[in-house]
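Technical note accompanying the year-one report. For the benefit of new consortium partners, we illustrate the data format agreed upon in the data management plan: each record pairs a sequence with a structure-token string. No post-processing was applied to the example shown here.
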Amino acid sequence: MSWWFTDTARAKSEQAALAQLDEQVGWLSGVTWSMGDHLQLNVEFDIEHDGEVFGLSMAYPATFPDTPPMISPRDGKQLSWHQYGAGGELCLEFRPDNWDSSITGSMMVESAYRLLSGERPMGDDRGIVPSAHQASIGRDLRGETMRFVVAREAIDVLKDIPPEAPLPIDVWERIGKPLWIASLVSIGDTGAPLWAGGAPCPSGSIKAKGFVLRTSRDVERFRGNADGFANNLPAEFPELAERFPENPFTGYVLLGEGDRWIVLYLFAYQDKQTVFPYKVIVAPETAGRLPPGHAALASKRVAIVGCGSVGSKIAGMLARSGVRRFTFIDDDVFFPANLVRNELDARAIGLHKAEALTSRLEDIASDMDITTRRVALGQQESAGTTEWVMEDLTKADLLIDATADPRAFNLVAAVARRHRKPMVWCQVYAGGVGGLVARARPDIDPPPMQARGQIQAWCDSQNIPWTGSAEADYGARSGSGAPLIADDADVSVIASHAGRMALDILTRDHTIFPSSAYLIGLAAEWIFQAPFDTWPIELHPDGEWGNPQGAASTEDLIDLMTTLFPTGGQE
């Protein structure tokens, strides 16, 4: 329902304010009220300045006075630099970003007069009305369906390349409805590029070639007349035409200098040169978004056992934080049912989760080093396979058990203790109740097996029965049992805390976590009094890290070898 149906007093005051303004100033005339489509209240009026008359219309939205009226020219013309296109709304002093419900339509009309008269001062002076807006890339790109992304670092390199000397470029492109997206990958010869971007080439994209030419010539005209470039190419850019491997050419051409560049896509069609203009988008710099200590993460290897809901989310978080070396261990396959709470999407259906997660992370960073093992640790695997996988675990700087399977936990915990590796594990409790995150650090916390025992003992000591599901633990289990209930938000909360704890181990000498185990509530259930009720669990020394047997002496090894492999034989 339109606002003036329920607020007649405000409607009358709007009418009175405009009538009063009409009486007080000489530049306003022709104020006429009307009703538009859907009972929208409109006002037509004329503004006169220096002998020129501007016919305008003000439309009150149905949500007025919570949102501002809109003033536009009635003749569909471009009247101001502060206007959203020809015939579009004038950008005035009062806008959605600074709107207050006490502002009236008459104040909007006065603002329109100040804008139009300010841009048209008396005499020969040029009027400039300063903008209160910051440029928005998203707003500017709404109507652009062909977009070419260039990194800010690449622009800095392009400023210094030799002028009028074409250089090869590599590009990735992804064409689909309604957008065509492309991005600069490298500048210069493939073997020794002047610049190569670190961003990954997205899944589904293809590689393309092209050339860049730094030139001071007027190239902006080709954005609106792409065919003109094709017609004038041999005469105006002979040095570029000579570098094309075929005529007509299929590929990208980047032209310009300094911070002003255009991109043209040349396409060979029926032996003719067709040209499509792209909108150049300069991407923000990638540096400075992560803490300085995260730079060291690129050299760390993290082994994640279980690539299901929790494990896949932790992997994504660590990759975005800077981890580049992973070992994924999981034999499970991704199915449509997994879509409700996994980092992966429909493109992974039918793939092993470990391999699909690898592809997912390669869409986050281009320099990933990932080892995948399609093995269910602790399940029915051969002894040789289990030994091989556990050997992979010893190469990691951090072990993460995301299975909630005690058999897998036992094996990962054994590697952690024996080889003195820090370990993080977590569980999500059924029904959105909450979950557990825990860690074990060599010689600081008890080994993982003892730590798990202390956590269980603490829970038992609370003497509060579990009133939810028969089982509290949620995990990526094999078998045909019914899945436990937990939505993506439940899983994401616990996975995020586990990821935070993993980063703390990998990046800090002094932890930010006073305890090494936490129960995190997501509902008023069991011991939790309310959502986000958190219970730290103190762990005390118990057990030793490392090989409890110690290293065998040389004499003991010689004696064992003699016993196992006697050298005696027949005469």
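Partners are asked to follow this layout when depositing records. The chain has a mean pLDDT of 88.
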